[in-house]
Amino acid sequence: MRKANTHTLYWIGITLVLFPILVVLGIYMRTVQFGQLPATQSWFYPMMTLHGLGMVGVCYAASMACAVDALRRYIEPSGAISWLALAGTVAGVVLLLVSVFLGKFAAGWYFLYPLPMRGNWPAWSTVMFLSAITVLGATWLIWSVDMLRAIARRYSLSEALGWHYLAGRTEPEVPPLVLITTVSLIACVACLVAGVIALALSFADVLGGVRSDALLMKNLTFFFGHVLVNLSMYLGLAVTYEVLPEYAGRPWKANKIVALSWNTVLVVFLAAYFHHLYMDFVQPVVVQYIGQVASYISSIPAAVVTLFGALMLVYRSKMRWNLASILLFVGLAGWAIGGGGAGIDSTILVNMKFHNTLWVPAHFHTYMLMGLMLLVTGYFYHCCQAATELPEKPSFHNLVILLLMVGGYGMLFMFYLSGAASIPRRFAVYPAELAHGAGYAGLGALFAALFLVGLIVFFVEIGKRWIRAFRVAV
Ligand code: HEM
Ligand SMILES: [Cu+2]
Q: Which residues contact 36 (CB under 8 A, 6 or more apart)?
């Protein structure tokens, strides 16, 4: 039995509440796109904004909570800042809910300038939305810096980044968890600083009427958004490197190749965000090419090393399959499949056709929903199960996996088909020319409902364990 950490249990509780609500919003959007619920159409864009930002926030905070929990074996994060992270996140969510539900703020999750100032919602709701992101961004910046501080107390920067492996030494042994988290946290500080600048300029506009350069704002915004989403994924992978070996009964250690691939990620992935600006012809042409090349270099080596490592770990091992290890394993698969879809879209020749079609939500939902969220829920289950050791029912768990897989991939397949059929993203209602989009939307809603059923069954399983673990811990 391994007592669960109180902060982690709170994060698990928050995730278990927010995630299904946000899934319901997703089903709602697909239903409106199917042509149903016409009376609620004016809520589509506020709900899209809430769903998008809410999901990205849950993914980030939950994956960070996993990484922090796993890291506690090696380092000691500050207790006060762990509480601050929880309180600041809850405060940010409350501000966001007010801006969306009372103010009908609807500029989309990345609030691309100058849309937040030009919509038909009141200026106070824009201020409220920007305040929500400010609170979340400031909280997460402090959280990340504290984790870097805690890592630095035990490892030097060059050790934490595994540079001694690159130099051919194998001592001191640094777990891949520490290496990948350090890479992610450095990127996190960079992206949150860019976010702060974009926010300050947005505030200057909405409060002081000071206009900003739209291209500069777009660069800042996508640097922030691209990096935040990707590093959340990396945090999910980092804990997989740590936990999957427990089930395989074999170690998964850092070495020269692991260190090299993740240092490449650190150097190159900050430049990959240019793939979001292919349509901006006023960008210097050279950065468009950099965007495509950086997208490949930042994803392929780390993916190959991680997937190969995971397969070697499992191959002919006496793997103990339970809900945690299965979710981690299929989560890796979802990450790889979504990554493939992203790679296709980051190719300029393809992006010319796929830009802003549903192909984009298709690929990022693949690695966020069937990748990261499965890694996170797998890790959470692992914590709760380790803390309670309740008997497990394999047949019941297989049912959960089946529902999640059929529902999730069915929903995604409808997104991919829509994208390939040129259905644009962010259309609440499809006009006659795009009428074929409605059918995909209806099927997508059905599959997503199946996913939700799987999620509810899963929550019953993890919920029992969570309540017990909570009673012991608090
Ligand atoms: C079963 C689960 C989910 C369903 C049914 C769902 C559904 C949807 C739908 C229908 C849209 C609007 C697509 C459009 O542009 O027409 C959307 C957008 C989005 N979703 Fe999800 N989603 C789910 C899970 C997730 C997860 C796990 C994430 C995690 C990051 C996520 C993040 C987003 C984002 C960022 C947007 C874009 C919002 C915008 O354009 O501003 N979703 N989702
Ligand atoms: Cu990107």
A: none
Q: Which domain holds residue 153?
A: 63-317
Task: Give the angle subtended at the CA of 413 by the CAs of 410 and 416, to the nearest 5°.
Answer: 160
| pLDDT averaged over every residue in the chain | 96
- Mark whether 162 and 249 lie in a shared domain: yes
| 336, part of any domain | no
Instruction: Indicate which residue's Cα is closest to atom 9 of ligand 1.
Output: 26
Q: Is the pLDDT of residue 269 over 90?
A: no
Q: Is residue 468 included in any domain, yes or no? A: yes
In a domain, 322, yes or no: no
Number of domains comprising the chain: 2
Q: What is the pLDDT of residue 243?
A: 97
Question: Average pLDDT in the 382-392 region?
Answer: 96
Ligand closest to CA 334:
1
Nearest to 207 by CA among 133, 132, 131: 131
- Residue ID of nearest Cα to ligand 1 atom 20: 52
Does the N-terminal peptide bond of residue 176 adopt cis geometry, omega within 30 degrees of 0?
A: no
Q: What's the CA angle centered on 226, arms 281 and 192, to 5 degrees?
A: 115
Contact between residue 88 and residue 135 where contact means Cβ atoms under 8 Å apart: yes
Is residue 8 located within the same domain as residue 67?
Answer: no
247 and 173 housed in the same domain: yes
CA of residue 443 to ligand 1 center, whole Å: 15
> Nearest C-alpha to atom 33 of ligand 1 is from which residue?
52
Please indicate whether residue 382, judged by its CB atom, sits closer than 6 Å to ligand 1: no
Query: 108 CB under 6 A from ligand 1?
Result: yes
- Residue 169 sits in a domain of what CATH number? 1.20.210.10
- β-partners of residue 357 are 424
Give the C-alpha distances (Å, rounded to integers) separating 209 from 106, 195, 201, 311.
20, 20, 10, 55
Q: How confident is the model at residue 86 (pLDDT cuts 50, 70, 90)?
A: very high
pLDDT tens for 110-147 read: 999 999 999 999 999 999 999 999 999 999 999 999 99
In a domain, 327, yes or no: no
pLDDT value of position 411? 98
CA atoms within 13 A on the CB side of 470: 12
Contact 71, 178 (CB under 8 A): yes
Is the same domain home to 135 and 74?
yes
Q: Sign of torsion, CA 256 373 52 404?
A: positive
- Kindly list the distances between the CA atom of residue 13 and the CA atoms of 1, 57, 85, in Å, as whole numbers in the listed order: 20, 15, 14
109/27 same-domain check: no
- Ion ligand 2: residues, CB within 5 A, are 226
- The yes-or-no verdict on residue 449 having pLDDT over 90 is yes
